[in-house]
From TrEMBL:
Domain of life: Bacteria
Protein name: Molybdopterin molybdenumtransferase
Keyword Cell wall biogenesis/degradation part of the UniProt annotation: no
Class of enzymatic activity (EC top level): transferase
Length: 410
């Protein structure tokens, strides 16, 4: 194993043969819906009601029979008798018959007999009558009683990440508790003789640890993950083995930052092999080639390269999908946020799939992106980057081409 990469594969094989074969957490928690935003739903949730449950006006105006407005215009208004007024939150007693109208607010109950609403801007009330200046069709300017949600409809699917709309819908249906999968626990281990704490004074050739603390902060933005920085150790095999062994006790995933390459003091593959199995070592991507994918005690142990750009890209492409999958999320693979027009030209390179950091902006009504240059050892490009674009092996980009864009978020 020493001195060369093992089982070197494209990232699609990592997704199919490594990530998808990991076992998601099965423990379920019951939460108040108001505290469940971002968590992963653990069962299909069906509506027990019909919404809105009554025909509802979408504008202030008058509820009418559509056939009574045929031919209405400013030149030849239709005159209807105002039978009454709808109060918000109340039904209307009685029924509209031909030649009648009922004044109605936005969101009000459409009386029986009415099949449309006329906007107030197209009317003029005179005494106990109203002049109608616009013809309406059946169903116009109203929401039908079952148009929003039907009884028995699945409103949240198992494996969906709960969003604002889910919370709003569930509370509107009177559902106040929800079953979710428990949080995935992640331990992040920092390695390297040259690494010191961010608050420490450092020697000229030392590096303050931005990798692991930044990653932990990033991971904890996702409510379904509980991440911590478990240890910082020197380049020593026994120390790394002991740190990984300790981290495996209380966590679902262990991440090792640094030491994933094939140098004399790169011990990640040896540590994982001593505790379990290295499934893959190395992927056909740039940056992020020397990523290590292991399993110990049935849990994923990921070795991320220490170079800043490699660390960020491999976290996004591999660690995030692992965590989403373990958390029970059904859609866990990286997905484009949209298409962008690339304003720069990129020369083609052979063999590896490439990921380029970009800054996204809007110009002439179109979403555009400019490349952020920088070597893999630099950290300054990251504060400017919104995300990455992918280039298949052997491809370049001509200025003005449209490409998929992956945004740095959860």
């Amino acid at each position: 194993m020493t001195g060369r990469y093992m089982k070197f594969v494209p990232r699609e094989k990592i997704y199919e043969n490594y990530i998808k074969k990991l076992s998601p957490v099965s423990t379920i928690e019951i939460l108040d819906v108001r505290e469940a935003l971002g968590r992963i739903c653990a069962q299909d949730i069906l509506s027990g009601e019909i919404l809105p449950g009554f025909n509802k006006s979408t504008f202030d105006g008058y509820a009418v029979r559509a056939e009574d407005t045929i031919g209405a215009s400013f030149e030849t208004p239709v005159v209807l008798k105002v039978k009454g007024r709808v109060e918000m939150g109340k039904t209307f007693k009685g029924e509209i018959t031909s030649g009648e109208a009922v004044k109605i607010p936005t969101g009000g109950f459409v009386p029986n007999g009415a099949d449309a609403c006329v906007m107030i801007e197209s009317t003029k009330e005179i005494g106990n009558t109203v002049e109608i200046y616009a013809e309406v069709l059946p169903g116009e300017n109203l929401v039908r009683y079952d148009e929003d949600i039907r009884e028995g409809e699945v409103v949240v699917e198992k494996g969906e990440r709960i969003n604002f709309g889910h919370v709003y819908t569930l509370l509107s249906l009177g559902t106040t508790t929800i079953k979710v999968f428990r949080k995935v626990k992640v331990a992040v281990i920092s390695t390297g003789d040259e690494i010191v704490e961010p608050e420490s004074a450092k020697e000229l050739t030392q590096i303050r640890d931005g990798n692991t603390y930044t990653l932990v902060s990033w991971l904890n933005l996702f409510p379904g993950v509980e991440a911590k920085r478990a240890a910082q150790i020197i380049d020593d095999l026994n120390s790394l083995i002991n740190s990984v062994k300790e981290a495996l006790k209380d966590n679902d995933v262990v991440v090792i930052s640094g030491g994933s390459s094939v140098g004399e003091k790169d011990f990640t593959t040896k540590a994982i092999s001593s505790l379990g199995e290295v499934r893959y070592h190395g992927t056909w991507i740039k940056p992020g080639k020397p990523t290590v994918f292991g399993v110990c005690d049935g849990k994923p142990v990921l070795g991320l390269p220490g170079k800043p750009s490699s660390f960020i890209v491999s976290s996004y492409l591999f660690l995030f999908p692992i965590l989403k999958h373990l958390a029970g999320q059904k859609d866990f693979l990286p997905a484009p946020a949209g298409m962008v027009k690339i304003v720069d030209e990129v020369q083609a390179e052979m063999r590896r799939e490439r990921f380029l950091f970009v800054k996204v902006f809007k110009k002439d009504g179109k979403m555009c992106a400019t490349l952020i240059p920088g070597q893999s050892m630099l950290i300054s490009p990251f504060k400017k980057a919104d995300g990455i674009i992918a280039l298949p092996p052997g491809e370049g980009i001509r200025a003005g081409e449209i490409r998929e864009y992956y945004r740095f978020d959860w």
